[in-house]
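Is this the right way to post C-alpha cells for a design question? Let me know if I should format differently. Anyway, here goes:
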C-alpha cells in the first residue's frame, strides 16, 4: 500500500552500536556508587565472616586454620544446635500467630472501615511497631513477672495455681518470648493484609453473595486467595524475624533459664564477645544466613509461581 503524501514514517532506526554502548556505560556509572556501597558494607563482611569461620581465633592473637571444624561444632554441640531448634520453634509464634490472627483482624476491620473504630483499631495494632523492641521487652518482663499484672489478673479469676514467673520457668519461657514477638509483629501483618484487601474488587464479594456464598466462603475463596502475595510477604518478614531474633530475647531472658530461650543471634553475640570464639561465632552466623535464605527462597518462589 502506498504511503500517504506528507505522512511521516513511525519506524525509527536503531541507535548505532557505539551510541548504545555509551548509554550503557552512563547507566552503569549511575549504579556504581550503590554497587560499591553494597560490596563494602554487605559482601565484604559476609566474605570476612566466612573466612573467620575457617579459623580458630580469639579476635586478638594469631589464628589457626581448622577448616570446616567450626561448622561441625555447630551441628554437634548441643548448646549451639539447640539454639537453632529454638529459633525454628519461635517461627510458630512469630509467623503463624501474627499472619492467621492478622487475617482475621484485617477482615473484621475491613467490614467496619467506615467507622472511627477502624481507625482506632489500626492505630492500636500498629503501636508495637513504633515502640522500641528494648522498651517492649522490658514492659513485657514486668507484665510476665511472678508479681506482674498477668499473674494478678489470673489470681483474680481464681487461677492462682497456674501463676508463675512465665519468663523464668523452663516450660513457659520460650512460648512467653514467642508471644512477645507475636504481639510486636501482629500490627505489621494486619496493616499489610489490610492494604492488600483494599485492592480487592468489591464486585467479587457482590457476585459471591448473589451466588449464595456465606462470610466464611467469601473469606476463603476471595480474600485469602487474593492476598496470596501479601501473605507471602508477611510470612517472609516474620520468619526472618524469628530466625534472626535478638533484641527481645536479650532483654527479656538473655537466653535463660538455662539455654531454654537461646537463639542463634544471641549465641553468636556470647561466642564472639564473651567467650572470644570468633571462628565458631562466624560459622554459626554463616549457617544462620543460609537457613534464612533456605526459608525465604521457597516462599518467594511460591509467590512467583502464583502469578503465572
Amino acid at each position: 500500500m502506498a504511503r500517504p503524501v506528507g505522512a511521516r514514517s513511525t519506524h525509527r532506526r536503531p541507535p548505532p552500536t557505539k551510541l548504545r554502548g555509551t548509554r550503557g556505560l552512563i547507566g552503569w556509572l549511575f549504579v556504581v556508587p550503590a554497587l560499591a556501597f553494597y560490596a563494602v558494607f554487605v559482601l565484604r563482611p559476609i566474605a570476612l565472616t566466612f573466612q573467620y569461620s575457617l579459623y580458630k581465633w580469639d579476635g586478638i592473637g594469631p589464628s589457626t586454620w581448622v577448616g570446616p571444624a567450626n561448622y561441625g561444632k555447630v551441628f554437634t554441640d548441643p548448646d549451639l544446635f539447640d539454639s537453632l531448634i529454638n529459633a525454628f520453634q519461635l517461627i510458630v509464634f512469630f509467623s503463624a500467630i501474627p499472619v492467621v490472627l492478622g487475617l482475621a483482624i484485617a477482615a473484621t476491620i475491613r467490614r467496619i472501615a467506615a467507622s472511627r473504630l477502624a481507625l482506632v483499631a489500626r492505630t492500636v495494632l500498629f503501636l508495637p511497631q513504633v515502640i522500641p523492641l528494648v522498651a517492649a521487652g522490658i514492659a513485657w518482663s514486668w507484665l510476665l513477672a511472678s508479681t506482674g499484672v498477668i499473674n494478678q489478673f489470673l489470681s483474680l479469676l481464681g487461677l492462682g495455681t497456674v501463676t508463675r514467673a512465665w519468663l523464668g520457668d523452663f516450660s513457659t519461657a520460650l512460648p512467653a518470648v514467642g508471644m512477645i514477638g507475636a504481639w510486636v509483629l501482629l500490627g505489621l501483618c494486619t496493616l499489610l493484609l489490610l492494604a492488600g484487601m483494599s485492592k480487592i474488587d468489591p464486585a467479587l464479594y457482590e457476585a459471591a453473595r448473589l451466588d449464595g456464598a456465606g462470610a466464611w466462603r467469601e473469606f476463603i475463596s476471595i480474600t485469602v486467595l487474593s492476598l496470596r502475595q501479601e501473605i507471602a510477604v508477611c510470612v517472609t518478614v516474620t520468619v526472618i524475624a524469628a530466625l534472626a531474633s535478638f533484641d527481645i530475647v536479650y532483654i527479656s531472658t538473655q537466653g535463660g533459664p538455662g539455654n531454654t530461650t537461646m537463639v542463634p543471634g544471641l549465641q553468636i553475640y556470647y561466642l564472639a564477645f564473651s567467650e572470644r570464639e570468633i571462628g565458631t561465632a562466624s560459622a554459626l552466623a554463616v549457617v544462620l544466613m543460609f537457613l534464612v535464605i533456605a526459608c525465604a527462597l521457597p516462599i518467594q518462589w511460591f509467590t512467583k509461581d502464583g502469578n503465572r
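Format looks fine. Someone answered above. Worth noting: The longest strand covers residues 55-56. The chain has a mean pLDDT of 86.
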